[in-house]
């Protein structure tokens, strides 16, 4: 089944200890869509400015992402500037320019309003809410957010969470959202707000997935070199949700497979700047790293 993604499409200026890029294609919806496209058909809803050219659209089209919901408006595309120090787990935001996103009123194409899986990627929670109202047919709703919105629009975010099935969030952000330092207690607080499944992303320390009474822990893939962590969370979401869209969500087994595929995609995402590594990625490479994750986490029962 298809997945509908709404989120940011951006020009990112990023510096890391491995180098820097200026105005590279980025945004939560971009990274997530490229990643999910390896597993299921993707429909993208977002807005860009007049400075977004055909060449910028090409990577999305090459990955067969349906961009009929990508609106071009007068003005400039969203821009984000971030920097990473030696701690690659958290970006320092140096500048956020909402530009065309400031006045965006999403209008989901009629034919897309019954898309079964809706991903509200990181963007203004009011926009996430608008899209949610329009996609009546969604059977599964997932959402992501970040500190910028937790600080700026906490009430809109909490209202949204009342309608969300799966929340993907960083460890620092779930602590900030709930005021709880302990992750297990923070997850309980979020459950009280709505989502039944909570995926806590912990950067190089991996992910914790809380689903019903089950908890699943997965390390990040050990890499000798990380060039740019930007979009790791979105690439994870793409692998995770793309897998659920392709195979369904019928219990623990599906959630675990999805979490491994999310981790596989995140591990490739950080190997290069922007979407560069995922644009060269092949299906055999995904299978290979999935198998290496199996080996990485294998152990025998205590006898
Ligand atoms: P991630 O590294 O997965 O958390 O996401 C990185 C992406 O988030 C970048 O490509 C940015 O363009 C995008 N981004 C940064 N700040 C915001 C924001 N306030 N709203 C939406 N997207 C953002």
What does this structure look like?
- With 303 residues, the protein is α/β, with parallel strands linked by helices.
- The protein has a single domain (3-296), classed as UDP-N-acetylmuramoyl-L-alanine:D-glutamate ligase, CATH 3.40.1190.
- It has 11 helices and 13 strands.
- It has helices spanning 28-36, 54-62, 125-134, 147-152, 154-161, 171-178, 183-193, 232-247, 252-269, 276-280, 283-296; strands at residues 3-6, 10-16, 19-26, 42-48, 66-72, 78-83, 92-97, 117-120, 140-144, 166-170, 197-201, 207-211, 214-218.
- It has a 9-stranded mixed sheet with strand order 5-4-1-8-9-10-11-12-13, with helices on both faces.
- Strand 11 (197-201) and strand 12 (207-211) form a beta hairpin.
- The relative contact order is 0.15.
- Adenosine monophosphate is lined by residues 8, 10, 12, 26-28, 31, 80, 96, 122-123, 146, 148, 230-234.
SSE topology sketch:
Layout: E1 3-6, E2 10-16, E3 19-26, H1 28-36, E4 42-48, H2 54-62, E5 66-72, E6 78-83, E7 92-97, E8 117-120, H3 125-134, E9 140-144, H4 147-152, H5 154-161, E10 166-170, H6 171-178, H7 183-193, E11 197-201, E12 207-211, E13 214-218, H8 232-247, H9 252-269, H10 276-280, H11 283-296
The structure holds adenosine monophosphate.
Strand count, sense and barrel status of the largest sheet are: 9 strands, mixed
Q: Ligands in the structure?
A: adenosine monophosphate
Q: Identify the overall geometry.
A: globular
Q: Distance between termini?
A: 43 Å
Mean pLDDT: 96
Number of domains: 1
Number of helices: 11
Poorly predicted ranges (pLDDT <50, ≥5 residues)?
none
CATH topology name, in short, is UDP-N-acetylmuramoyl-L-alanine:D-glutamate ligase
The CATH class designation is Alpha Beta
Fraction of residues in β-strands: 15-25%
Please tell me how large the radius of gyration is. Answer: 18 Å
Do you know the CATH architecture? Answer: 3-Layer(aba) Sandwich
């Amino acid at each position: 089944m298809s997945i509908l993604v709404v989120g940011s499409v951006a020009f990112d200026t990023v510096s890391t200890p491995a180098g820097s890029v200026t105005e590279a294609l980025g945004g939560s919806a971009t990274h997530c869509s490229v990643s999910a496209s390896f597993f299921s058909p993707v429909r993208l809803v977002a807005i860009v400015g007049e400075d977004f050219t055909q060449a910028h659209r090409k990577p999305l089209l090459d990955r067969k992402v349906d961009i009929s919901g990508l609106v071009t408006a007068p003005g400039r595309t969203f821009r984000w500037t971030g920097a990473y120090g030696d701690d690659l787990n958290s970006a320092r935001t140096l500048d956020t320019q909402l530009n065309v996103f400031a006045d965006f009123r999403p209008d989901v194409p009629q034919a897309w309003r019954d898309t079964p899986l809706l991903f509200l990627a990181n963007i203004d929670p009011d926009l996430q809410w608008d899209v949610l109202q329009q996609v009546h047919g969604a059977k599964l709703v997932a959402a992501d957010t970040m500190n910028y919105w937790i600080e700026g629009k906490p009430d809109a975010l909490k209202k949204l969470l009342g309608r969300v099935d799966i929340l993907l969030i960083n460890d620092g952000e779930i602590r900030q959202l709930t005021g709880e330092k302990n992750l297990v207690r923070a997850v309980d607080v979020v459950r009280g707000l709505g989502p039944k499944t909570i995926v806590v992303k912990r950067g190089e320390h991996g992910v914790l997935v809380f689903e019903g009474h089950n908890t699943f822990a997965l390390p990040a893939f050990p890499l000798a070199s990380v060039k740019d962590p930007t979009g790791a969370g979105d690439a994870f979401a793409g692998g995770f949700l793309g897998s659920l869209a392709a195979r369904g969500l019928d219990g623990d087994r599906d959630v675990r497979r999805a979490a491994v595929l999310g981790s596989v995609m995140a591990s490739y995402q950080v190997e290069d700047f922007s979407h560069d590594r995922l644009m060269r990625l092949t299906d055999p490479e995904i299978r290979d790293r999935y198998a290496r994750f199996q080996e990485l986490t294998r152990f025998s029962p205590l006898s």
